[in-house]
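User: Sequence recovery, please. Input:
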């Protein structure tokens, strides 16, 4: 079979990238975001972070940083010497709850173990907590759920900062100020801290990695559910991975039914690295059942366990296809299907960014484009995803929607952004 057979297969099952048209989908998503801001029923929570994105950081200021991500758990000391950012004593370990279920108490003890060696040099802790949590005026987070296929029992309803503070005090460490934020807000702040050359009209934070999310800065008066007035800016964590309004195909529904949280995180399951490999595996297994791949290829596919986005990125670039292919026709089919999965993911994210530009009014002045500060394994490592997204931002969001936007990938933005959050808001 050929590349055309793969495209026909995708279209027949509603999985073709072109099913997602970024511009009309951006308009629909912006309306859903506005409902979330107003406190009306919405699949996009639009969570106020109570974080300012502007404030003074004095030369030499430093903060301890905790980054509890979808895969890795990291701690570091981050210093702002006056120009740039210095990151030291970086430690990375596997996130608890991946290999086996963990309890909330185990997670907090693990966290205290990691940050404690840094606290003789600072009283400020930036805790980047990359899971669903409601942030209160005290800039602490109350956990809704731990997701991304991580299992930490007893987490729901717990306060992240208060739990860590209690554990530190149990160990005799007092007086530490903990600011809790999610990875997307940290990426926005870290991107600003990089002082990109050029004049930008505003910033959007984007995470495209294990999970998918975005954030933006809005006047508090636009966040209707807070009941506040004024133009002071506040970072809003959209939790856009939960958006349920994009066109879905047969294998989106199949993957959702087999996930740990059926019915939740629709956009994330269409776009994120933790799901794209499994989505492609399910599609290829079905294609084999339909006789579109050789019997040898079908046998190899059935022997596979779960695969991640790095594997399908290789297949999309004609690498390691011997793992699954039974010949050239199989290889062409697999290559085309995997490329399409990344293109569709990029089209979904282009719609998400377009919605934020409509919501904020950003990008209308070409001399001051909005800057999307992006981090995550997908946007940083995939050879398919980022080029596709940048083309869409130029052609669809710029050309059709009329909004000027540039993408900047930031290294270690969660670390520098979490430190900035603690120093500006602590």
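Assistant: Recovered sequence (426 residues):
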């Amino acid at each position: 079979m050929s590349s055309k057979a793969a495209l026909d297969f995708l279209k027949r099952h509603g999985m073709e990238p072109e099913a997602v048209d970024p511009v009309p989908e951006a308009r629909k998503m912006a309306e859903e975001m506005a409902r979330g801001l107003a406190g009306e029923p919405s699949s996009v929570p639009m969570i106020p972070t109570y974080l300012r994105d502007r404030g003074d950081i004095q030369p030499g200021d430093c903060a301890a940083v905790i980054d509890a991500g979808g895969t890795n758990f990291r701690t570091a000391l981050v210093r702002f010497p006056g120009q740039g950012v210095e990151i030291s004593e970086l430690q990375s370990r596997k996130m608890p709850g991946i290999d086996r279920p963990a309890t909330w108490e185990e997670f907090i003890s693990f966290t205290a173990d990691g940050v404690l060696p840094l606290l003789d040099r600072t009283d400020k802790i930036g805790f980047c907590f990359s899971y669903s949590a409601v942030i209160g005026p005290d800039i602490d987070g109350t956990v809704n759920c731990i997701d991304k296929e991580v299992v930490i029992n007893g987490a729901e309803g717990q306060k992240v900062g208060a739990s860590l503070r209690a554990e530190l005090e149990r160990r005799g460490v007092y007086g530490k100020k903990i600011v809790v934020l999610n990875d997307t807000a940290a990426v926005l702040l870290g991107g600003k801290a990089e002082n990109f050359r050029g004049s930008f009209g505003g910033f959007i934070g984007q995470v495209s990695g294990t999970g998918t999310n975005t954030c933006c800065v809005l006047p508090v008066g636009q966040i209707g559910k807070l009941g506040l007035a004024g133009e002071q800016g506040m970072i809003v964590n959209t939790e856009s991975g939960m958006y349920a309004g994009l066109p879905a195909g047969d294998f989106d529904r199949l993957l959702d039914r087999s996930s740990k949280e059926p019915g939740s995180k629709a956009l994330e399951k269409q776009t994120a690295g933790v799901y794209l490999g499994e989505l492609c595996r399910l599609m290829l297994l079905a294609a084999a059942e339909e006789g579109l791949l050789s019997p040898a290829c079908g046998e190899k596919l059935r022997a596979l366990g779960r695969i991640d986005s790095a594997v399908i990125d290789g297949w999309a670039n004609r690498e390691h296809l011997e793992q699954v292919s039974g010949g050239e026709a199989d290889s062409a089919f697999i290559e085309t299907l995997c490329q399409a999965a990344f293109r569709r993911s990029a089209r979904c994210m282009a719609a998400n960014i377009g919605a934020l530009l409509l919501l904020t009014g950003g990008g209308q002045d070409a001399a001051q484009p909005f800057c999307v500060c992006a981090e995550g394994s997908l946007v940083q490592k995939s050879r398919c995803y980022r080029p596709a997204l940048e083309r869409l931002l130029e052609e669809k969001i710029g050309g059709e929607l009329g909004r000027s936007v540039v993408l900047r990938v930031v290294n270690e933005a969660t670390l520098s952004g979490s430190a900035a959050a603690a120093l500006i808001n602590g």
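The longest strand covers residues 72-80.
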